[in-house]
Task: structure prediction
Amino acid sequence: MATHSNPNTSFDPTRTAVLVIDPVNDFLHEDGAAWEMTKSTVKKNDVVAQLARLTQGAREAGVPVLFGPMAYTAEDYANEGLQRRSGINRLMFENRMFLAGSFGADFHSDIQPQPGDIILAPHKGTDVLQTDLREHLDRLGTTHLVIAGMTANLCVESTGRHATELGYDVTFLSDAIGAESLPAYEASIHLNFPLIANAVLEVDEFLGSLAPGPIPTEPGVQPGDTVYGSDRGQVGTVEEVVAATEGVPGYLVVQRGAIFDKHLFVPLDAVTHRSGTSTFINIPKLVVSKLPWDEPPTAETAAVKLGTPAAEVAALYRTHAPTGG
Result:
């Protein structure tokens, strides 16, 4: 069984990449074709300024910045019939959005790619991983993908979900993301993102976890740290950091509230990163109470959570095996 000591909790610039999705005029400029839909969340979060801060801060820390835009040509519609594929493709087609070579498909003037940045081939649907993105991530050695841009419940979520399924660690930056409506934004940020990714952070929290040069090995999580869920909900305060022993994973003793003296025993491998004295775990606060973290782990409970070794499983679905398996 793998054991985990107090993990390094910073973002490693050599393994992290920032993906900015669709930072273009049709979404972000008042003359853009989608501005009437996106302006409420873009203004609320000051998305343009936040994306500018994010990209500059990432570059200064040596983190690669990738831009994932859209651009449609006549052939996409005449030959491929993209307008028949989905509701969002129909919407873009009818409103002449992201047309190749147009003002709307161009990058916003405040979020221009710089030398050394990577501009991806255009995505034609809602998943940027259907482009050359993965090739670039593999070449860069990326294991942690940080996602911002437009829009929360479509391209941002689809790409983040796919990246998670491929094995990348994924972080969404909530104040550098917009959507076509406030309900769509809120549902993504508070319900979907916290369950399909490591965490939902703000730009300052992400940049605060980056440092130019070699990634520090200390400090890890410290007593007194405030623990936040992947939905940025406050879980409690770290009282103790318990190192792993033979067969028993390391864990945090977390105090939840001063009145009821209730403790949680949070596995160290649930910790994703630390910014200042804030420690983040990869489960939303809303579901922490559903987890069996009310007692310290033992070798027995750790083994049970692993399940049965494959060689000892007669049929994956108890009475059935996969067809063709």
Observations:
- The two ends are 28 Å apart (CA to CA).
- The chain has two domains: 16-208, 226-310.
- The CA atoms of residues 271 and 281 lie 4 Å apart.
